[in-house]
Inverse folding.
């Protein structure tokens, strides 16, 4: 009896096994023959399209290195190789050509009524110091900055690789270190002259008449005419832009990524070459473009007739405020020279 | 001559970092600089992949194009090298590089980026092959001895391949054909303007 029961149990178990196997068979048939572990895998092109870069996790402390691919450097390269040199060349050479044509046509703007022989103080020693400190830094930084963009094309073939590299290394340090007095200068210029450079009603008239240099009649102006106000605000705003972007580049990864630094460099380069072009015009008007203008920043005084012709309202203010104070005989009136 | 390339088969990389260690040791890379690193994408999620990345020695290399002092040169084996004597540490190659390869000692202190350092494909720099001076500046010069970069030579799973582009592309193609899948040659489109059709 016991053996019969055992046999029945074996038969039942066998049938059960067959049934289970039969039920399981369709499930097994649904599974793929080979597993594709790549189905869920990250795809390079997909990541690049979605995030513009490929970034993950690494095991070294340098977290910046976790970005393994960011092809937008190619756009920045295009800017550095083509756009910036083109914009810079057109802006700077264009400005020089325009000024040369203007000088040939118009010549130096003379003091129409001649020199009076009496001077009036226009810029004090501190103002002139700040101006020339900023100007010196600007010229040196412009030359060393242009070296980075144009040196490889213009200077490298002349100097040879070793000499050009040595010069460029010095130039880099000049550019970096002079940024501090330059920035200080821009800040001082802002506070020093902001009062006289706020736009007012005289500016519109001055601009309509084309200023003293273009028009025939002399538009009235206070201490700074509309043209000077434009130069002032360009210096302040462009100076701030190049300073901020420059410091971002000097301190890599402080609040920036590589993409941020590419953008900072593009703003820095574009603003800088336009800034240089405008400062060429500023230097032109301050020297050979207009008689009697340079001495305002040179000795700090201008001739009374120059002041009358270019800054009549300012002169009235000065004369009303301090009588004849601030005026003194022209040193050059004595025929010593 | 060969056209040397790197290829990381991400489906094989097990993130052991042996390539990173091999590179640092073989080249005596300065502290804080990693010429090669392994980065894991989608870490801990399905479809996670690790990629070992260094300088890819690009075709028409962006670093060389933007260098203000022209300190880069491409060897006959198409390896992109640079001269640390000419480098002024301006940072431009590092803005242009798609792979984050150029690095500078003392990064962060203003105006004091040192001479740029990057993967040399274990082939040194402009100094005489295998000279102590070359080793001090650029590390090992294995290529002139007929050896491939140590990172790839040491790779335990043979994920990282170095060698002539056509040969390593063929090895990768054969692998993909045999195993039935492949996540592609990472960085090739960006570096070489071509991918490996699989």
């Amino acid at each position: 009896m016991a053996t019969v029961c055992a046999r029945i149990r074996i038969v039942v178990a066998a049938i059960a096994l067959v049934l289970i196997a039969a039920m399981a068979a369709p499930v097994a048939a649904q599974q793929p023959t080979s597993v594709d572990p790549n189905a869920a895998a990250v795809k390079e092109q997909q990541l690049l399209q979605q995030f513009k870069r490929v970034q993950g996790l690494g095991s070294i402390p340098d977290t910046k290195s976790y970005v393994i691919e960011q092809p937008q450097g190619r756009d920045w390269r295009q800017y550095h190789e083509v756009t910036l040199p083109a914009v810079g060349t057109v802006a700077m050479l264009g400005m020089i050509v325009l000024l040369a044509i203007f000088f040939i046509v118009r010549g130096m703007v003379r003091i129409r009524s001649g020199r009076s022989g009496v001077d009036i103080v226009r810029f004090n020693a501190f103002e002139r110091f700040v101006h020339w400190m900023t100007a010196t830094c600007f010229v040196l930084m412009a030359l060393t900055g242009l070296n980075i963009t144009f040196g490889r094309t213009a200077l490298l073939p002349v100097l040879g690789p070793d000499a050009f590299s040595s010069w460029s290394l010095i130039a880099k340090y000049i550019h970096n270190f002079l940024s501090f007095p330059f920035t200080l200068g821009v800040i001082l210029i802002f506070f020093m002259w902001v009062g006289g450079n706020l736009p007012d009603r005289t500016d519109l008239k001055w601009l309509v008449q084309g200023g003293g240099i273009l028009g025939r009649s002399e538009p009235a102006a206070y201490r700074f005419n509309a043209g000077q106000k434009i130069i002032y605000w360009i210096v302040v705003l462009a100076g701030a832009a190049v300073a901020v972007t420059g410091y971002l580049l000097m301190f890599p990864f402080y609040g920036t990524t590589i993409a941020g630094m590419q953008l900072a460099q593009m703003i820095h380069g574009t603003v800088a070459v336009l800034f240089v072009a405008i400062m060429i015009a500023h230097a032109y008007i301050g020297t050979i473009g207009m008689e009697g203008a340079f001495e305002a920043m040179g000795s700090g005084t201008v001739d009374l007739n120059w002041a009358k012709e270019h800054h009549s309202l300012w002169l009235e203010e000065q004369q009303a405020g301090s009588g004849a104070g601030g005026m003194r005989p022209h040193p050059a009136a004595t025929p010593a020279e | 001559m060969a056209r040397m390339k790197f290829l990381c088969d991400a489906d094989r990389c097990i993130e052991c970092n042996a390539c990173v260690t091999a590179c640092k040791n073989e080249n005596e890379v300065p502290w804080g600089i990693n010429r090669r690193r392994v980065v894991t994408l989608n870490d801990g999620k399905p479809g996670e992949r690790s990629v070992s990345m260094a300088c890819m020695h690009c075709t028409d290399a962006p670093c060389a194009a933007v260098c203000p002092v022209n300190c880069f040169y491409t060897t006959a084996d198409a390896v992109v090298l640079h001269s640390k004597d000419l480098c002024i540490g301006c940072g431009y190659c590092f803005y242009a590089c798609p792979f984050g390869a150029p690095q500078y000692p003392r990064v962060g202190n203003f105006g004091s980026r040192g001479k740029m350092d990057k993967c040399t494909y274990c082939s040194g720099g402009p100094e005489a092959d295998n000279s102590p001076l070359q080793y001090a500046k650029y590390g090992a010069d294995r290529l002139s001895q007929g050896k491939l970069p140590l990172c790839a030579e040491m790779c335990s799973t043979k994920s990282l391949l170095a060698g002539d582009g056509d040969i390593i592309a063929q090895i990768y193609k054969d692998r993909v054909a045999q195993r039935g899948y492949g996540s592609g040659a990472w960085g090739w489109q960006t570096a070489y303007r071509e991918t490996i059709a699989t």
Remarks:
- Residues 4-192 of chain B form a domain with the Alpha-Beta Plaits fold (CATH 3.30.70.20).
- The CA atoms of residues 89 and 115 of chain B lie 5 Å apart.
- The helical segments of chain B are 18-27, 62-66, 92-96, 132-138, 150-154, 165-179, 188-192.
